[in-house]
Amino acid sequence: MKHLYAPGTIGWSFEVFPPKSAEAVEAMYGTVGELARHRPVFISVTYGAGGSTRDQSLEIARQIRQRHGLAVTAHFTCVGSTRDEVRDWLGQAERLGVENIMALRGDPPQGETRFVPVAGGFRFASELVAFIRQEFPRFGIGVAGYPEVHQEAVSPESDLENLKRKVELGGDVVYTQLFYDNDDFLRFRDRCQRIGIGAPIVPGLLPVLSLKQIQRITSLCKAKLPERLVGRLERHADDPAGQMAVGIDHCAEQCQGLLAAGVPGIHFYVLNRADAVRQILARLD
Ligand SMILES: Cc1cc2nc3c(=O)[nH]c(=O)nc-3n(C[C@H](O)[C@H](O)[C@H](O)COP(=O)(O)OP(=O)(O)OC[C@H]3O[C@@H](n4cnc5c(N)ncnc54)[C@H](O)[C@@H]3O)c2cc1C
Known about the structure:
- It is a single chain.
- By secondary structure, this protein is of the alpha/beta class.
- The protein has one domain: TIM Barrel.
- Strands 1-2-3-4-5-6-7-8 form an eight-stranded parallel beta barrel, surrounded by five helices.
- Helix 4 links the parallel strand 4 and strand 5.
- The radius of gyration is 18 Å and the shape is globular.
- 45% of the residues are buried.
- Bound molecules: flavin-adenine dinucleotide.
- Flavin-adenine dinucleotide binds next to strand 3, strand 4, helix 4, helix 5 and strand 6.
C-alpha cells in the first residue's frame, strides 16, 4: 500500500459508506463515478457499526472495482466476529479482488464506553493487523491514527505506542481521524516521527457541510471544532449553501496547508457526496 504514495505524487482517496436503500446505493455509484475523474489511489468502503454491513460492504467494493475499474480498500472491524468469521470475510474479500483492508477495532455499542470483544475475537486493531499480515499477506493494510488522541486511550503516549505497534505488526499506511486544525495533525506527525513510526501518514478530512451535522459528528469522535470555524458557520445560520461554502473554504485551506507541509496524500470522508470535494480539488488544481 505504501507504493500508492511514491515521492512526487499525491495520493487522493475517497471514503464512502454503504447506504440503506437501493436508490441511495445507485446514487453512491454515481458519486464514485464523478470522483473517479480525480484518479484516486483507491475508494474505501466503510464497515457499519456493529458489523451491520458485513456483506454489503464487500458487494459495494466488488461493484466499484467492476464498474469504475478503481482499487478498493474495504474497512473491517473486530466487532462481533470470531477469528474464524474474520478469516472467512477476509477470504471472501481476497477472492473479490479487494486490494487493501482498513484494519480497525471498531467502537463499543452506543451507550457503552468499553469495547468488549466476542469470545474468540480480537481485542485491539493490532491483533487484527497481525492476523491479516500472517494469513493474507497480499493485502495492503491501513490503520487508524488520532491527531487529537483516541477517546479511550489511557494517555497520548500509550495511544502513540499502540499506533507504533500496529505499524510494526504490518500496518502499511496510517490514515487519520478527521481534524479541523492542521496544527493538531502536524504535532501528531512530529510525535510519530520522534517515536520511530516510519509509515506514511495520510490526513483524513471531512469537509463541513453544515454546522449541525459537524457538531454531531465531532461530538461522537471527540474532534475539536475551532472557534473561528464555528463563528464563520454561525454567520450563515439560516443559509445551508452559505454554510457549505464556508466548509469548502476551510477544507481547501486545510488541504493547501497540508500539501505545503509535504503530506503524501489526503483521504476525504466524502459522505457519499461528490460536490464539496469536487470544488475543493478544483481549487487545488
Ligand atoms: C481512517 C478511519 C476509518 C474508520 N472506519 C471505520 C469503519 O469503517 N467502521 C467503524 O465502525 N469504525 C471506523 N472507524 C472508527 C474506529 O473503529 C474507532 O475509532 C475505534 O474506536 C478505534 O478503532 P482503532 O482501530 O483505532 O482501535 P485500536 O487501535 O485497537 O485502539 C482502540 C483504543 O485502545 C487503545 N489500545 C490499543 N491497544 C492497546 C493495548 N495493548 N493496551 C491498552 N490500550 C490499547 C488505543 O490507545 C485506543 O484508545 C474509523 C476510524 C478511522 C480513523
